[in-house]
Amino acid sequence: MGTSTQGRKTAEPSPQARGRELARHGQQLWKELRSVKSAAAELMSRNPDVPSIQAYRYAAGLSQDQAAVRYNEVNDHQTSLGGTTINAWETWARTRGAGSPPTFSSLLVLATAYGRGPLGITTEDISPSDLVSEAYERLAPEDQLSLKRYNDRRPNAAAGDLNTHLLVSRSPTTAIRKNIVGPDFNLGVPTIAYGNPEVCVFTLPNPQPGQLLNLTWETFGFGIERLIRQIKNMGRRLDADVCFGINEAGLVMATFLASAQFARCSIGYLRCHKVRDTVALAPESFYPDASPGSTILICDFEVKHADVIGFTCRELRRRYPDASLYFAVFGAMTKSADLAVASFDDLAGAQIMRTAELEAVFIAATMSPPGIEPPLELR
């Protein structure tokens, strides 16, 4: 006798598996919308059973344990909250009669913690009320009153919805005072035969997506130090005869590297400007004397999509026959929002660097569109 399939239910995923899937969706939504608040709202619209306090955590890219760590960081580590408390709050919001409610003060801290986003560097304005929107009436009466008074006295929320005001004064004339340097990662790059194929690169998260990231001198110097370390660890000693800088920012890089790493070798200057869709070199460019077969290091501030390095390599090979060309760039733009790329080919300028047939490539940092600005707006 066959077994009837009528009424058979599809096996539901375990809570852990569903949690991982929701976390993945939350992170993807944040990458698309660049807002914890918008990502959480979209996640809840797709999953009505997910309470807001949990949706905000997923949108912030945090596990329960990571959320607890972030909570303690906001409190300058004067608290020692654990992931079990985060779980208790979310259980309370999801199921009547289970878990325990957060206090008004806890909601204040949690809103700040989640407002920092997946990278931990933004200051998105999130109201504590947003975290308990569907469970507000189940809070203690005194916490309900505190939330109401907080919202009544709160500045115009629309002004606070700007995603990223990290380290920016309220005065529009005051520049960002400090950059956030993201995590290091190893990246395989084109290099010499039997050379070290990996360089240690740092990420430059942009707290204001869609706007140029203005670098401080401190960050600029840190990138120069990173390039020096990569050059020293290439696998063999690199002795440059000339350091060429592309435009003013590249010239500053070339000056630092020539002095610090190459015993004050000669310095050249390539002033590039665009003529319609092509690149041209201005007559102010300077080419030091060098013997055929010289070793030349080319320095540029950033690599995006334009084939500046290919053009300059062709010009230098014409002027310096049989020269060995190396390339040091401060910032390389990535193709996706993930700055810790898995492969050199995930960089926007990967193909133009490969086509330039360089001996080796050195990269200090990865960056996102639209790019980075050097200190004092050097060009």
From TrEMBL:
State the source organism's domain of life: Bacteria
Please report the name of this protein according to its UniProt entry.
Answer: Uncharacterized protein
Q: What lineage is on file?
A: Bacteria, Bacillati, Actinomycetota, Actinomycetes, Micromonosporales
Spans annotated as Disordered: 1-24
